[in-house]
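Checklist before submission:
- one chain only
- standard amino acids only
- sequence pasted in full

Submission:
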Amino acid sequence: MNAAINRAVSVEIDGENFEMLLTTKAAADIDREFGGLDKVGEALDGDDRDASVETASKLIAILCNAGSERYNYRHRDTPRRMIGHDEVGILTTPGEMTYLLRSAIEAVRRGKETYIESEQAPGDGKN
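Returned file contents:
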């Protein structure tokens, strides 16, 4: 089973499917944009509604684009498009934004989990 597939959260934005995914690159983008995941939470909980919407839109776009980048890396002949944070704000309603934020939180949770698959060495089996 592919751990990356298990980490992705499928979402729909204006009728278009995206996969949110926390990759190492996406985590670095979040660090650069917000100063870390903990800062995202602080910005979302702040009193400035415009800043909260901007933060949410950027986080959603970063995670959706990480899923598209992974797909495009593997399927160069049929690339998926990237989405800008401005598009996220334009194409969604406040209710959809709530759904997308819950999905983003789930994608981050899944991305922070550790998946370790190991093969048992010959002779290591229990008798």
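Reviewer check: The mean pLDDT is 88.
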